DNA sequence: ATTATCTATAGATCTATAGATAATGC
DNA sequence: ATTATCTATAGATCTATAGATAATGC
């Protein structure tokens, strides 16, 4: 397993030599993730984190040099997860024989699921990255990676598109989907009007919209590819 | 001029009796707006605000009971601006004879301009509303108001739409445009790939996408026929 | 013998106020 | 005579550390 760049000499995290060490460290990260997601890193004190992890403040500082190191380690953990899942999801082999529509449907389902599995984390990430260039760069890079993967998958199927400029159309569609997903998953920007509509209806309309915009062939009634 | 609900007994703001009073108060609000937009309310101390306004901390507290009152007053000022502009923008009289395309183009231009005139404020608003129910409700209401106005304007032109469900189509399109604008204007979520494309190209593609989705009559200057 | 944890606390902010001083306008 | 401002500081957090105590594994 490759170490995340955030766990480095600069942002020191102790590598434990007793078995209990790892358990505590994970409990601290879990507690931090829960707290930071709910009310942000700044509004959570190290005492809160310690309490949530069931240990003392001193123990937290034994594992993480300072609050920033804790934040980096947490981001490292989440972004490692995210990247592993993402890389797997955009693997061309996985989508052999799939249409643009299949891929986009998969992307929507995948994102909604992921976003709901870690509620609030995206917001916490955005907030934290406001104040830290490195986190921001990391966050952008993770998103860019996903976008690159999707772009390649779609452009490999440019024959399906009637749109005169497949590169532009792909960039536009990924912007559209990413933006709409963010709005939908955002814990603050919960628009009452939209919230009444189901994920299924949302996905259906998005696919209709993208379909006519890209001018891809009408949806075949047979569904489902993994 | 109606007083914003935020400037109330609950969230006390002093009404000055000397002419210099108002100047100081506005200087404080200006300073707060700049600081809060740039790094958020929590990360800005009252001493920072005072320094930015060129007065002492004591003076700030003379005008605003506490930090929250300052935040509320600031939001009141911005949201009053926003609502006045918005109400004017969605006045049906203003759009007589205009097509759906005209209206949406106007919306895009208006939003991009407004968002860039107050850079960072949207983000500051989101962040602040994370921790305060009232601000959140106010922010949502302001957005809902704009959305209602636009919805009415569009549904009054439902004859232009070939889409079988104009209500659904309108809601979807407003969600799409709102989301994409937010992404584009967001100071943090500045995606490198998108940033290279101009506002003009952005607006053009959005209008193409919405046009084919809603099935509104093709733009006068047709680009490509299927 | 070393590593991990806890307790207690110093030092750094930051909010908010009290009391002194300056400016305004009746 | 009242209103606005400033200076100085008390009180509340919160981060981070020092030193004491407990648990681990060679």
Nutshell version of this structure?
2 copies of one chain form a homodimer. Chain A is an all-alpha fold. Chain A has 10 helices and no strands.
What does this 3D model show about the protein?
The first copy, chain A, has 226 residues and is mainly α. Chain A has helices spanning 19-39, 46-53, 57-63, 67-89, 100-117, 121-130, 133-155, 166-185, 192-195, 199-214. The longest helix of chain A has 23 residues, at 67-89. Chain A is elongated, with a radius of gyration of 20 Å. The two termini of chain A are 27 Å apart. Chain A binds chain B through residues 39-40, 42-43, 123, 126-127, 129-131, 136, 140, 143-144, 147, 162, 164, 168, 171-172, 175-176, 178-180, 182-183, 188-194, 197, 205, 208-209, 212-213, 215, and chain B through 39-40, 42-43, 123, 126-127, 129-131, 136, 140, 143-144, 147, 168, 171-172, 175-176, 178-180, 182-183, 188-194, 197, 201, 205, 208-209, 212-213, 223-224, 226. Chain A binds a DNA duplex (26 and 26 nucleotides) through residues 14, 16-21, 24, 45-47, 55-59, 61-63, 65-67.
Biggest protein-protein interface? A-B, 41 and 42 residues
Shape of chain A: elongated
Q: Helix tally of chain A? A: 10
Pattern of helices and strands of chain A: HHHHHHHHHH
Query: What does the oligomeric state look like here?
Result: homodimer
What percentage of the residues of chain A does DSSP assign to strands (E)? under 5%
Largest sheet of chain A: none
How many strand segments of chain A?
0
The structural class of chain A is mainly alpha
Distance between the termini of chain A: 27 Å
